[in-house]
Design brief:
Length: about 210
């Protein structure tokens, strides 16, 4: 899951002789990801990304701490948004609807952002170097759900129920994302909502409410 908000900040940067041009974080990310897709993530350097975008190496690092963060940084923003939405959930809201609304709320995209989102998903799914980083990033996403579930269940966050729910929620959402990216025949929110309802239905049928 990788979020793609527009970034309207535009610091002026030098792009060789002539009038300085400006760029945005999103524009720089798009240039980088298109290069990654065409030439292979492992072979593209930061210097090549900066040159293709017409910015300096220093400007690249003003926006991104490293090359991988071009693809993963917005995913981490999604995790933070899920945590904020879960924390703001009214006490009377049932656990599964609260999780569903938080996940859907953190995955709202404008139509013009969807091609970029699919590109991110393709890169994460095909570049071994990015997949190697998935454990940390997906682990943070899973932990947000696990901790919320533990609180609602009155369970140990390291216990079976909370950890199983966190892992299962991540798994069904990843499946929804992957199928959506492959087919793009319905809104992402529809895939996510259906996956989460299926999980809720199965969890309720199993009666797994112990910690």
């Amino acid at each position: 899951m990788a979020r793609s908000p527009a970034d309207s900040s535009r610091p002026a940067v030098a792009a060789g002789p002539g009038r300085p041009r400006s760029t945005t974080r999103r524009e720089l990310a798009l240039v980088a990801m298109r290069l990654f897709e065409r030439q292979g993530y492992a072979t593209v350097t930061v210097d090549e990304v900066a040159a293709a975008a017409g910015v300096s190496r220093r400007t690249f690092f003003r926006y991104f701490p490293n090359k991988a963060s071009v693809v993963w940084l917005d995913f981490d923003s999604e995790v933070a948004q899920i945590r904020r939405l879960l924390a703001a959930t009214p006490a009377g809201t049932a656990m599964f609807p609260a999780i569903r609304e938080a996940v859907l709320g953190a995955n709202r995209y404008r139509p013009e952002d969807l091609p970029e989102l699919r590109l991110r998903m393709r890169l994460i799914g095909t570049a071994p170097e990015l997949q190697a980083l998935a454990v940390r990033h997906y682990g943070a996403w899973e932990a947000a759900i696990t901790e919320f579930a533990a609180d609602r269940l009155g369970a140990d966050p390291d216990g079976l129920a909370a950890r199983a729910l966190g892992a299962a929620t991540l798994a069904v959402c990843r499946a929804a994302y992957e199928i959506w990216a492959e087919h793009a025949d319905a809104p992402l929110s529809r895939y996510l909502a259906r996956a989460l309802r299926e999980l809720e239905s199965g969890w309720a049928a199993d009666g797994s409410d112990d910690g």
